[in-house]
Amino acid sequence: MDYSIQDIARLAGTTSRTLRHYDAEGLLLPSRIGSNGYRYYDERALVRLQRILLLRELGLGLPAIREVLDREVDEGAALRAHLGWLEQEQSRLQRQIRSVHSTITALEGEEPLMADTMFDGFDHTHYKEEVEERWGQTAYATGDDWWRSKSPAERDQWQATSGTLQADWADAATRQLDPAGDEAQFLARRHVEWLGSIPGLPRTDGHPAADYVRGLGEMYVADDRFAANYGGPTGAAFVRDALTVYAAEHL
User: Fold this and answer.
1) What is the DSSP letter of 27?
2) Can you list the alpha helix ranges (DSSP code H) found in 197-232?
3) What is the C-alpha to C-alpha distance for residues 52 and 22, in angstroms, rounded to an integer?
4) What pLDDT, in 10s, does the model give residues 131-143?
5) What is the pTM of this model?
6) Beta strand extents in the chain (DSSP E only)
7) Any long-range contacts for 20-26 (C-beta under 8 Å, 24+ apart)?
8) For residues 184 and 33, what is the distance between their CA atoms, to the nearest angstrom?
9) Are strands 203-204 and 39-41 parallel, antiparallel or unpaired?
10) Taking a C-beta distance cutoff of 8 angstroms, is the pair 184, 89 a contact?
C-alpha cells in the first residue's frame, strides 16, 4: 500500500516540506512519483522514516543519521537496539511520574512529603553503590563530577553517540559477523575510544585497561539490563567476544 506525502506528514506529525527535505538530503526517497508529480511512500519507507525520527530524538543531525542508516542495513536489529534504550527511558520516566504524583499529593495535604522518593528517576546516581562496589569510590566520584560538568546538550550528544554504538553492535551481531573480523574489531575500537572519553576508569598507558574492558564485556552478558542494549544475550556475547579479542591484541 502506498501513502501520499500528505498522508505520511499527517501520520508522522511532520510536514510535507520536511519530507521533501529528507528526500533532498538522500535520507528518505519516495517509493514512486505519480503522474501528477506527487510523492508516494510504501511500507518500507515508513519503517525508514520511523528510524529517522527516532534518531532525531537522540539528537543526531541529518548527516549522522544518513551514515547510521547506510551502515545499519538490518532494520530489525537496529530497531531492537533502539527499543532497549526506549524501554530504559520509559522505566526512568515512569519513576519520575510516580515521584511527581507523590509530591503533588503531599502538597495538597493528603500525605507527608517523602524526601527519599521525590527524586526517583531524576538522578544519574541510581547505580552509585553498584559502580563503587565494582570499580571503587574514586572511579564513581570522578565520573560523577565529569557528568555533572556537562551541559544538557553535551549530555544529549554523548547519549546519542552511545545509542548509535549500541545499535551498530546489535546490527553486527544479527549479521553473525566474526568477533575477530575487521568490522567487529573496528566496532571494538570505537567502543574502547568511547569508554576512553569517561574519566576515572582504570587505565594503562592512557587507554582503558585490558582487564577493565574484558570485565565490562562479561558484565554485558551477565546483566540483562546491559544485554538489552545490544539486542539481548546473543548480542551481548558478541560484544564481549569482540572486546576480548581487541583487548588481547591492542590493550
Assistant:
1) S
2) 210-222, 224-227
3) 9
4) 555 556 665 566 6
5) 0.51
6) 3-4, 32-33, 39-41, 203-204, 207-208
7) 22/49, 22/52, 22/62, 25/62, 25/66, 26/66
8) 39
9) unpaired
10) no
